[in-house]
């Protein structure tokens, strides 16, 4: 994944969606930062990020489930970025990108003090089987946000689109737009926009996945697993995210770049969901109380100021 993230069309499209979300809902207009700064900033390039004259290094951005850090590298041009991941290997690779503020921990018990972040990004994390309570993780993110802060999520869509790719990447759940909106509200967050994307590829890829699932070999394998009382076994399956010939990668990237300019259209379905939500001035009792119980080890809470000073990075 580390080698693919910079150029693969899927990762570029994901970064493009995140950057467009930050263009439409600029964090720089929140309370405590100059009103209106950053509005209208264009984010056309998945590699160039959202830097420039409107950058504000005082805005704290946490990537909750940062993986190898490519999203942080893009956002680092504009914000003061912090990365959190449960994997030591992923954090080690992120450190190779020159990202200094990295912490090891779970999104279900985020090791940061409350109300310390202005922006939280979490791309393709809550779906994972390693996250036992996705609502609890959302409440943790809400706890860490300052009032008025934003959260940007990316999630896989529709459980009926589940494929062998999901088995390989340990997918526990896929979502609908309504379900994401409901979970955000239960976490004490106000949904600003929840919509499907990757819709230009939706019909052909959905058809491919359905046909694969209906193939005789797939049915036989599922039958064997059922008789054994086992969960699906990836076996020879592999992730769909593999290196492609350059011309195919460019074509796919161009197609998703075109889609990004058509997102104002009413889209009823897509392969993924991008969501933007805001924390109100007062987090609801439901949102805050659930998170407080999750923080079972206060001694491991990391102060942002300590990370900036080079202490308490938390990588173990």
Keywords for this entry:
316 residues, alpha/beta, Rossmann fold, 7 strands
SSE layout and pairing:
Elements: H1 9-24, E1 60-64, H2 70-75, E2 80-85, H3 88-95, E3 102-104, E4 117-123, H4 134-144, E5 145-156, H5 164-168, H6 177-186, E6 189-197, H7 202-214, H8 216-228, H9 246-260, E7 272-279, H10 285-294, H11 304-308
Parallel strand pairs: 1-2, 1-4, 2-3, 4-5
Antiparallel strand pairs: 5-7, 6-7
Summarize the structure in words:
This protein is of the alpha/beta class. It has one domain: Rossmann fold, CATH 3.40.50. It is 35% helix and 16% strand. The protein contains eleven helices and seven strands. It has helices spanning 9-24, 70-75, 88-95, 134-144, 164-168, 177-186, 202-214, 216-228, 246-260, 285-294, 304-308; strands spanning 60-64, 80-85, 102-104, 117-123, 145-156, 189-197, 272-279. It has a seven-stranded mixed beta sheet with strand order 3-2-1-4-5-7-6, sandwiched between helices. Helix 3 (88-95) links the parallel strand 2 (80-85) and strand 3 (102-104). Helix 1 packs parallel to helix 9 and helix 4 (134-144) packs across helix 10 (285-294). The model is unreliable at 29-44, 50-54, 222-236 and 284-299 (pLDDT under 50).
